């Protein structure tokens, strides 16, 4: 008997949790990132402090008039180091354009705090049954895990984080957003609900299974917001992530294509032999190449 789609890929999420838990086994506190520029911005919407880790282009200078696009990256605790080092390698061969990278992370003391914070921020709707299920899987007390904070986090991005970065760094109006897993879900949420905020999107291994594929329904109701959009979107998933992850992504992309959004440019990549965890560095590299490649407008 074939397993339901929901459970087909659940082992990869468990592997992700084991990976993060083991990474913090010797030191339960969040990794402190001391390279680059680090800032803390408190949200006026959910009252949470966010750490911003900023990596600047090699030739960035306050003494010239050159301004740069910005790529905002979610789950900064794990993504910042990977994106920063990948960008520096690509820069050596001039394979991508100069871009400011801003990794965003919650202020968390433990891995459990991190899981609770991102579960709230990155999910678009309050689904108590999912909170209960994932609370059991992650061994988190039921009263701590709560979903549905994406609207507040989107407001935080638009009204608090982006204005802070644009006030303190030399930026253009060209903004990108990239996320993995629940971060990919949130990135798609931004695309469909506030498409004017970003022009480039890295939607990697998105958790489109959330709330019975809520994002697919949103394509049908919100696609008019993308009319006239010039968005460039990179979609990716690991081939070994299972039907739970791969099929909803394919369906989402096809649904967007059927809307005849002529200005929207989409690239899709299914990475062979990659799981939900192992795909993260390669999808991050390809996100930079597709969204900021030297031949990209």
The proportion of residues in beta strands is 15-25%
Strands, total number? 8
Counted by DSSP, the helix tally is: 10
Mean pLDDT: 89
What is the count of distinct domains?
Answer: 1
Rg on CA atoms, Å? 18 Å
SSE map:
Layout: H1 5-8, H2 10-23, E1 37-42, E2 49-55, E3 68-73, H3 76-92, E4 100-106, H4 111-121, H5 128-138, H6 150-168, E5 171-180, H7 182-193, E6 200-204, H8 210-222, E7 232-238, H9 243-257, E8 265-271, H10 279-292
Parallel strand pairs: 3-4, 3-5, 5-6, 6-7, 7-8
Antiparallel strand pairs: 1-2, 2-4
Helix pairs in contact: 3-10, 7-8, 8-9
Please characterize this protein's 3D structure.
The protein is 44% helix and 19% strand. The protein has 297 residues and is of the alpha/beta class. It has a single domain (5-292), classed as Alpha/Beta hydrolase fold, catalytic domain (Rossmann fold). An eight-stranded mixed sheet has the order 1-2-4-3-5-6-7-8, with helices on both faces. It is globular. 39% of the residues are buried.
């Amino acid at each position: 008997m074939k397993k339901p789609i929901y459970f087909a890929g659940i082992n990869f999420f468990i592997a992700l949790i084991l990976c993060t838990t083991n990474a913090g086994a010797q030191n339960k506190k969040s990794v402190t990132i001391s390279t680059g520029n680090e800032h803390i911005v408190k949200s006026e919407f959910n009252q949470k402090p966010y750490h911003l880790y900023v990596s600047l282009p090699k030739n960035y200078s306050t003494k010239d008039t050159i301004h740069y696009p910005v790529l905002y990256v979610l789950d900064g605790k794990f993504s910042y180091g990977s994106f920063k080092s990948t960008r520096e390698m690509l820069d050596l061969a001039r394979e991508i354009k100069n871009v400011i990278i801003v990794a965003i992370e919650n202020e968390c003391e433990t891995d459990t705090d991190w899981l609770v914070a991102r579960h709230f921020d990155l999910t678009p709707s309050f689904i108590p049954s999912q909170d209960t299920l994932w609370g059991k899987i992650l061994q988190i007390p039921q009263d701590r895990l709560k979903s549905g904070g994406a609207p507040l986090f989107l407001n935080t991005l638009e009204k608090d984080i982006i204005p802070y970065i644009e006030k303190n760094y030399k930026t253009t109006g060209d903004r990108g957003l990239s996320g993995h897993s629940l971060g990919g879900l949130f990135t798609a949420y931004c695309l469909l609900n506030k498409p004017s905020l970003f022009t480039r999107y890295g939607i990697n291994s998105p958790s489109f299974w959330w709330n019975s594929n809520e994002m697919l329904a949103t394509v049908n109701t919100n696609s008019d917001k993308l009319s006239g959009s010039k968005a460039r979107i990179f979609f990716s998933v690991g081939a070994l992530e299972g039907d739970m992850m791969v099929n909803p992504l394919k369906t989402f992309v096809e649904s967007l294509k059927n809307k005849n959004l002529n200005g929207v440019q989409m690239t899709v990549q299914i990475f062979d032999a990659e799981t939900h965890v192992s795909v993260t560095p390669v999808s991050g590299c390809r996100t930079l190449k597709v969204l900021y490649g030297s031949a990209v407008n």
